[in-house]
Design goal:
Helix content: 25-40%
Oligomer: single chain
Distance between the termini: 58 Å
Order of helices and strands: EHEEHEEHHEEEHEHHHHEEHHH
Largest sheet: 8 strands, mixed
Structural class: alpha/beta
Strand content: 15-25%
Number of strands: 11
Strand order of the largest sheet: 3-2-5-6-7-8-1-9
Length: 351
Amino acid sequence: MKTVLISELKPFLDALAEEMELYVPKKSGEHYVYNRYDPSANVQVEFNNIRTCTPAKEFLFPLREIVAVYPESSDPINIKPFAVFGLKQCDLRSIEILDIVFKEAEYEDSFYVSRREKMFIISSDCTQPADSCFCNVLGGKPFAQNRYDLNVSQVKDQFIIEAGSQKGKDFIEKHSELFTKTTDIILAKRDKVRIETQKQLEEINSALEFDSPVNEIVGNSQDSVVYDEEAKTCVECQGCTRVCPTCHCFYLYDTKQEDYFTKIKMWDSCMRIAYAEVAGGANPRKALGDRLRHRFMHKFSYFLERYGVDMCVGCGRCVDGEAGEVDIRKVLKKLNEELKGKDKAKAEAAK
């Protein structure tokens, strides 16, 4: 794909904003959040060296939206083309998972599809992973590999822009006056930064080694006491599922207006006590430990069995957003040790 060079981001972002709504990362305390880009504000846009604290799903799967109106029909709203700048590889993988869920033939969500078709993705390399990041443990990389329209890599005071789709290539060709040619030297410097970042991730997660594939570890943990032990500090804040870029549970409820009714779709969470409750009040997952078990089984076992894709991208948002100190990495490590102990006991019994 086509690769070009630019020395400043603003002309590039201005050109994007002329064609579509543009959202860019903004530093808020220690984290990044997304804001609508205003070309006239003359504010320097930061190149976010780590993923934002808010997940990309907010752009495609809103927290709350009207999906039906009675007696009038409710078709997908007229979505304008929009672009999101600064998404990381973990975000791109999460969008792949959401695509699987909401674009599945028989259950296609027309509202999601409408937004997805209008989305222009500008990813960027991750250069300063947080202590909570563990994407490399699940096969991830700190730089985009696919599923982007354009990718931006910073090399000192320059930016390499690479097209990853025909839409991205068309944009570069349309605005060719903004860019210059890349050189092998610049590309080599980018690759060096990527290797160094990968090493950072490996150092951060050096203690996170497993004796079996994660899906096998979790798949064999149905009767584990680890979930009940870890759930003791859980406060049912549901923060882990809210900031997770792949959690997609929702519920539908009806509201009455003056002369019409609406059906609203809203994010839900399997960590909420009433989530699994059925008519009559029966609830198979009243205990927090059972809900934590279900969350892990869905992430690492059920989804993989059905679609062949891991549902966890290792972004670490749940680690940062969790109020109850339930660290997904520590739970996996404990489950691994438990399974290893069981395997050892079986081997000794078979002697």
